[in-house]
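Here is the promised in-class demo. Please do not try to memorize the tokens; focus on the logic of going from shape to residues.
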């Protein structure tokens, strides 16, 4: 008889990082209940995570494509819990706990955060320099040699790694992560020529607003706005070595990958995606869920739901799905 257990839903936010002690070890039933999945097979103990390429006894892994070849190879292992797509199993398999879920890879990430990531207690390093009037929330971590200016607000449960610089007129929300050597809140490159042909830089008064659950990668620069603020909206994720020019507006749940350069006063819509080394010209817009392939040189605004690539970037098709 086919053994399936439909588990209860427990709400969860991928970005939420708890200060509570690590919950490991756990069980397949607990993971299934957490993901609102369907368990096919027996309950197993789970003590760690592993990859599909190197599975191990007592681990939880994921398989985006649970083919007969993958299933056959995994049967060599005992006490292995596997996240698979819904409807991809034909029945219980000896030694395996199969959990059917909607998105194996992203649900695996949720499991990692919930059961296997232990956050160190919040601390402010003795080498950090923090302005006297800076407003620091609860459970904030500020790493070694960070510099935080006076006119700064940092929300609860946010972490600044090491050597981060946060300038004046910067507001950082709750549960954000700013990785090492990022610079947030220095002037942008608003430079032109005066009547004598001499370079002149525009003063910057606009500040930076980083909303909740945002991630800023290593060596990222987020420039001050000139008159209005530069904005990075809720849950946006910025990879390493990215430049965000003055007055950029990065939409909710946007993903900006490594080495992207976004010119001043540009806008990336909700769930927009820019691939590695893409460039978005100043004052151009990428609509909601627009997608730029790696190395795309975007010199014209991109409509919502549109995939572009090339130099100059040209529309290829409508975007299909998020992952």
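The designed amino acids, position by position:
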């Amino acid at each position: 008889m086919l053994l399936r257990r439909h588990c209860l839903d427990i709400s969860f936010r991928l970005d939420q990082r708890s200060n509570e002690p690590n919950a490991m070890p756990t069980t397949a039933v607990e993971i299934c209940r957490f993901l609102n999945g369907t368990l096919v097979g027996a309950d197993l103990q789970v003590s760690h995570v592993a990859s599909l390429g190197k599975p191990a006894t007592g681990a939880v892994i994921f398989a985006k494509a649970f083919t007969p070849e993958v299933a056959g190879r995994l049967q060599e292992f005992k006490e292995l819990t596997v996240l698979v797509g819904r409807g991809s199993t034909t029945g219980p398999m000896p030694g395996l706990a199969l959990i059917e879920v909607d998105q194996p890879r992203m649900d695996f990430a949720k499991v990692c955060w919930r059961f296997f990531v232990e956050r160190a207690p919040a601390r402010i390093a003795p080498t950090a320099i923090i302005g006297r009037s800076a407003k620091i929330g609860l459970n904030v971590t500020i790493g070694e040699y960070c510099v935080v200016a006076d006119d700064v607000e940092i929300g609860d449960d946010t972490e600044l790694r090491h050597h981060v610089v946060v300038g004046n007129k910067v507001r950082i929300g709750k549960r954000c992560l700013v990785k090492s050597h990022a610079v947030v809140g220095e002037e942008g490159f608003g430079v032109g020529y005066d009547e004598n042909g001499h370079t002149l830089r525009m003063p910057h008064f606009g500040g930076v607003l980083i909303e909740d659950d945002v991630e800023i990668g290593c060596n990222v620069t987020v420039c001050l706005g000139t008159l209005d603020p530069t904005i990075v909206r809720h849950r946006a994720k910025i990879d390493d070595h990215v430049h965000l020019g003055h007055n950029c507006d990065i939409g909710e749940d946007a993903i900006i990958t490594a080495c992207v350069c976004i010119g001043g006063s540009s806008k990336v819509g909700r769930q927009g995606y820019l691939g590695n080394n893409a460039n978005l010209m100043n004052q151009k817009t990428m609509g909601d869920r627009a997608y730029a392939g790696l190395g795309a040189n975007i010199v014209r605004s991109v409509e919502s739901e549109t995939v572009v690539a090339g130099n100059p970037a040209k529309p290829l098709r409508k975007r299909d799905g998020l992952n």
